[in-house]
Amino acid sequence: LPTRREVHRRHMNLNEDCEFCNAESESWSHDLIKCHFSKGAWKLGLLPWDVIIHVLDDPLAWLIYYIENLSTENFVMTLTTAWAIWFARNEATHSNTILDPLRTHRFIDSYNAAYVEAFRSLQHTAIHHHVEEQNWTRPDTDFVKLNFDSGLTTSKGTGFGGIIRDAQGTCIAWFAFNNPHRLDPEHGELMAATFVMELALDLGYKKMVLEGDCLSIINALKSKQNMEVSPLGNVFADIFSLIDQCDEFRPEHVRRDRNKTAHQLAKHGTYQTFGFDFQSLP
């Protein structure tokens, strides 16, 4: 990690003290665990502090210690927390945001809830598997399915959510996005659809099923009618240009109960933005 201590060791910076607490040299262990902000973020979680605070000089030995002394679930949460702390510190350094342990803790909780929802295993009992199949159907081979939804509009703005899965039901990418503006439902749904299509195309997928629970949006995409006179004409023009980049495109309407994952992500997007594909997961 490019900590101040490491940068100082390479004679690139004369000051190796932590820029946020000035308490000690900014090492990897100080950044991730010992700094006042980092301690606050850890202690707001439910992880065993006596294990977390057991810091070793060697980061590899530190990880091995965690593997040996934490459950799999807690180890995953530990890595997520360390990553979120590092992300927040970088954001504060480069974007002049305020370090807030509570905000970071909320992000970790939201991220973990969305991750669990998005990557829920399909290998359940026969009953659970049957319920899963009722709620979401897999696309044809060589296709990916894109589910999208728009969440509630609040004083914080409008939330969008989207998820991309392949023909095996494996999650490829997902996002929760917060738009600071209060959008009407159809505008929010159309923006969510645009976002998830852009993500799929960026990842190289050109055969896609776009699935959502807003019937008016799906019907408009099916009919491919001229929407220039619509108040959302510019947004429709954007999504039609994305459709033109696809080899095959199938818009499909589903009930809300078959679009639950995208709906949950949209709810998280009401408050904050985050999202990942299979290459950028921490």
Describe the structure.
This is RNase H type-1 domain-containing protein. One of its GO terms (molecular function) is nucleic acid binding. InterPro entries: RNase_H-like_dom_plant, RNase_H-like_EbsB-rel, RNaseH-like_sf, RNaseH_domain, RNaseH_sf. Pfam families: RVT_3. This protein has 282 residues and is of the alpha/beta class. The chain contains twelve helices and six strands. It has two domains: 31-117, no CATH class; 124-277, 2-Layer Sandwich (Nucleotidyltransferase, domain 5). Helix content is 49%, strand content 16%. A hairpin with a 5-residue loop joins β2 and β3 (171-179). α2 packs across α3 (36-44), α7 (101-118) packs antiparallel against α12 (260-269) and α9 (185-202) packs parallel to α11 (233-244). It is elongated, with a radius of gyration of 22 Å. Mean pLDDT is 79; it is low at 3-8, 121-133 and 277-282.
